[in-house]
Amino acid sequence: MHTFLLIPAILASLATTLPTSDTAQKGSRIFPSHTDTAQKGPGVYMSSEPFWGFRETKGTWQWIEITPGKCQELTDFDKVISSFGPDKGVQCLLYDQHSCKGKQLEIFYPGYADMSWNGWDNRVSSFTCSSS
Fold first, then answer.
1. Could you write out the DSSP letters of every residue in 18-74?
2. Which candidate, 18, 14, 68, 80, places its Cα nearest to that of 42?
3. pLDDT per position in the chain (132 positions), as tens?
4. So which residues are the signal peptide here (predicted)?
5. What are the phi and psi torsion angles at 80 (to 5°)?
6. Which residue segments constitute the domains of the chain, with CATH numbers given?
């Protein structure tokens, strides 16, 4: 009898922990997929969890349209990126300091699903990209 009373409580708690666009941090635009058809130009996809947020079920993820050659400062994602992937035809330099300074990592499509293998997990503070 007690088991049946726990099931609705468990389901209610799960519903409040799933990421949605309503629970996104300010500045985080959550898209259903990194291939969202609403995208207008070249961009990059990033997640605060490895493996693209385990297929967008954990953490925060975001697609950002880039302006080629412009330094992109990270705010909500500063030093929390675990997955990073430029769109096809986009090549980026990731930096471990703001203002596109410090040590850098070159990255291109499809990017890295797990940044820990190369020592760049939770390290990126800014980036710049170019497109072909």
1. S--GGGPPTTPPP-S-TT-TT--S-EEEEESSHHHHHHHTSS-EEEEE--TT--EE-
2. 68
3. 444 443 444 333 333 332 333 333 333 344 444 445 456 789 999 999 999 887 777 888 899 999 999 999 999 899 999 999 999 999 999 999 999 999 999 999 999 999 999 999 999 999 999 998
4. 1-17
5. -130, 5
6. 24-131 (2.60.20.10)
